[in-house]
Amino acid sequence: DHGLSEADPEVRAIINKEKERQFKSLELIASENFTSRAVMEAVGSCLTNKYSEGLPGKRYYGGNEYIDELEILCQKRALAAFHLDENKWGVNVQPLSGSPANFEVYTAILNPHDRIMGLDLPHGGHLSHGFMTPKRRVSGTSIYFESMPYRLDESTGLVDYDMLEKTATLFRPKLIICGASAYPRDFDYPRMRKIADAVGAFLMMDMAHISGLVAASVVADPFEYCDIVTTTTHKSLRGPRGGMIFFKKDPVLGVDLESAINNAVFPGLQGGPHNHTIGGLAVCLQHAQSPEFKAYQNQVVSNCRALARRLVELGYTLVSGGSDNHLVLVDLRPLGIDGARVEKILDMASITLNKNSVPGDKSALVPGGIRIGSPAMTTRGFTEKEFTAIADFIHEGVQITIEAKGLASGSKVQEFLKFVSSPDFPLTDKVSN
Ligand code: PLP
């Protein structure tokens, strides 16, 4: 049996290049992180060889005594990491990622074409919460369910709860989803709960982006108010790529969430669990209970605030004016440029971040902002000082983008041509002859 370098030098070389890219750049994508060597070891282990359809003690394959032990350990650690009482909450650790986890919840508690409400994609929501254009139902969530988005108040950059309440009263959704991919503030869970109760809807939180911050109690706790909480495991939580679904054990709106959700995961939508991922997740969830992890999450938030502070000093407009979590959303439209151009220029300078739509954008193709996240570089030991320097680097990139846009638009050359074409410049005659 050969190691990768011997068995497949071509793939080894690609991995080496990607590793170098990751370590030589400033990684500011809000949904990315660097997981630990211990997690990597579990993910790259023999656990990947095993089939184990079903749940611990109820498998469709033999040889699962250790896999059962692992999954039970992972479940226990998941509940402990989020400070949950095992009598009140359960968890399924098998979802393959965040989008499948969300679709599994919908499959569990909704009938096809039931109504749901999530934050609009261009306002920071996620595709898996539903998205359609006037021409096309884009997200599978909008193909199989009727989705009506709620939005931000464009003047404040905060969720427009009043409008959500009015729309929910008319639309009467069966499920309301909190959570976002690009929202720098906490959700008002008590308000969302009230709205859900008033219309008889389930309330779900997709905490994918902020699950590490929730585990460390540095943001508001969604478990106090929601019936179901989903998450990815590879963002601020710093685990392997995967997903989890937490559910209340007592029936909600007459539905036994435990059996409905477990059945939706398997046999509903998935087959064999990825046991190597569950192994890595168990490692991550143990670490998530340590004082070191809490200190890390506090630093993620402080770093993000330092970044926001410096950007505001430099004159930038931030959606909602700042940040309570791990990301800032910069509105570049006042500078006459867009996020796509800035993303490209910064990419050339080894600074990796996302173009992102901002409230009020006319086109989704040319989004007016950028999203900047602090989790990954905080893992690499960056503090407020380095994040202040990052703001200065980004500023430099933005200035270059503004100049490059001026040049690329041809306006500088047009000015120049006007001069060479003037009557007192003889070139004009020569050219027309
Ligand atoms: N939910 C939210 C809020 C997300 O931001 C994301 C991904 O960015 C997902 C779900 C989907 O996760 P995955 O890419 O693992 O399917």
UniProtKB/TrEMBL annotation:
GO molecular function: glycine hydroxymethyltransferase activity; pyridoxal phosphate binding
Names of the cofactor(s): pyridoxal 5'-phosphate
Family: Belongs to the SHMT family.
Organism of derivation: Gossypium anomalum
Biological or metabolic pathway of the protein: One-carbon metabolism; tetrahydrofolate interconversion
Official protein name in the record: Serine hydroxymethyltransferase
The keyword Transferase appears for this protein: yes
Keyword terms, alphabetized: One-carbon metabolism, Pyridoxal phosphate, Transferase
Domain Serine hydroxymethyltransferase-like, first and last residues per copy: 4-394
Gene Ontology process terms (BP): glycine biosynthetic process from serine; tetrahydrofolate interconversion
